[in-house]
Amino acid sequence: MKDLLFKRFIQLIMVAWGVGTLTFILMRSLPGDMAYRLAASRYGQDNFDSSTAELIRHELKLDQSAWSAYFSWLGDLLQLNLGNSMVSDLPVMDTLSHMLGHSLLLAGVGMIIAILLAFPLGLWAAKYGGWADRLTLLFSTSVRALPVFVIGVLLILVFSLELELLPVAGFGTPAHLILPSLALAISLAAVSSRIIRNEAKRVFNSSFFEFAQIKGLSTRKAFQRHGWRNLLVPVIAFFAIQLITVVEGVVMIESLFSWPGIGHGLAHAIFARDIPIIQGAALLMGIMFVVLNTLVDIISYYLDPRIKQEFSE
User: Fold this and answer.
1) What angle, 0 to 180 degrees and rounded to 10, lies between the N-to-C axes of helices 243-257 and 148-155?
2) Per-residue pLDDT tens for 130-142?
3) Is the pTM of this model over 0.85?
């Protein structure tokens, strides 16, 4: 376990440095004058002139060389100081911590709904096969072919505009959470259900499962005692891979539904050229990805004795 945590810690450091550096390079490579874009974001498109832009350039040290700015940012990062927003002048850490809670709420509810959808569909297809398997395959391929924001638009058209049951966008009540989390969950469940189906079918056809039934256990008892653990290890590993889809989906879903999370804030910061917010949001997403993968590794470590043996050797 110590070796596993140490490897993840080194990965965390490398991800933080790599994501931050890449974001810095990409933002510096964007065309246009950053000082003018920030002045427009602060005061409005028609409420500033060139002297205002020059004051902002001097105030935010945008006239520094790229190397000076990079090493200044790197020094602040080592002190866990992400700086202040170039638009609002609020601390980046405070802004991101406010957004993070909303993003985690959306991602958590979306993952729970995805699990509640994927496991019944996958087990149903594995147990009965035939038309049930073909029907779930049709659902999976059809949904997976659609980008997550298209699923969101379809849900808005049906439940908000046509049936008028749920709000189109915004935040404030539990009803505002339903459509964005459902859009994210449907996208995740489309592929997860097929992985669960494949692994459940492997368990049902395995020799240890057949032997459990020969001993007199019913299919349900045999699956509860011997099937679940063998099913969960590869499924949990796949959910770790799907965390990339979660991060990608959260960015698009938050922008579509005006959900006040990191993805929504990141989109606004990119348009405003608010570099500290962009770097902080990208950095936080990278760190979240490593932390969540570490949690998945720990769960797999306790579920699968072979992983314990691998790290003990």
Assistant:
1) 40
2) 888 888 888 888 8
3) no
Q: What is the CA radius of gyration of the chain?
A: 24
Q: In this structure, what token pair is assigned to residue 59?
A: 């105030």
* CATH 1.10.3720.10 holds for 93-311: yes
The boundaries of every CATH 1.10.3720.10 domain in the chain are 93-311
Would you give the DSSP letter of residue 274? Answer: -
Q: What stretches of 32-173 show up as alpha helix (H) in DSSP?
A: 34-43, 50-59, 66-78, 92-128, 130-144, 148-155
Of 241, 283, 243, 244, which Cα lies nearest the Cα of 262? 283
Indicate the pLDDT class of residue 170, thresholds 50, 70 and 90: confident
The 10s digit of each residue's pLDDT in 21-36 is: 888 787 777 666 667 6
Q: CA 213, CA 217: separation in Å to the nearest integer?
A: 5
